[in-house]
Amino acid sequence: MAPRKHQRTGRASGDPQDGQPAAGVAALRIDLEQLELGPQPLEAQIPAAWIASVLAETDAIVSETDGGGIARLELMLQTDRTLLVRGQLELRYLVPCARCLEPAPVDVGGELGDLCVTFVPADRVRSWAEFSGEPGQEDEIEPLETSELDEIGYQGTTVDLCALVSEQLLLAYPMRALCSRGEACRGLCMRCGTELNSTVSDSEAAASCPKCGLRLLPDGSAADDETPDSPWKRALAKVKSEEDL
């Protein structure tokens, strides 16, 4: 019997329903022996549990109710066994708001989810890992071309895209996210930690923390003359006073 080929829909094994994404990260392990030459679409469902494991060292909250994510990819196998992978990730998770710590949604998609990587047989990859550190060897190594920077070597007949997707998830993790209020979020009181969004009226140009009385600006930050004292400010004041002596 002839080996089974990836269909034009790019589905993984397991006979999923027609038109539905292949379930699980197993669909991201590409058997080149069963992949036809030319462009092949691949749409894989990424389980929420797998996304959560990738982001386990972050503050991300991945909900099972969101259904995980989807990788919409195009695979192009060339006659020299080079595999070009292009596409996009689409998923959502929550992180704490940088101001009030309430859940802030993060949508991975668009430019954040873009993928474009070339896999080539390992024996054709020029890698800095081959540098042995011997005197004079650095003079013999030519700099990598721009086209080689996104090349990943593979061995055997299988290309595993799981590491690629994991890396993209981590790269897309935001350094700072805001809740649904956006820039209008007033956050927490700098002195006592009281949540200010529900205690300060939008119509007030300035207000005070209802718990500690700290005078606030409209964005929830402390007025200049009310900025809470802190150890580093006390240390700075001490240094300045010593300089004045």
UniProtKB/TrEMBL annotation:
Instruction: Name the segments for region: Disordered.
Output: 1-22, 220-245
The record, for InterPro entries, names:
YceD (IPR003772)
Designated name of the protein: DUF177 domain-containing protein
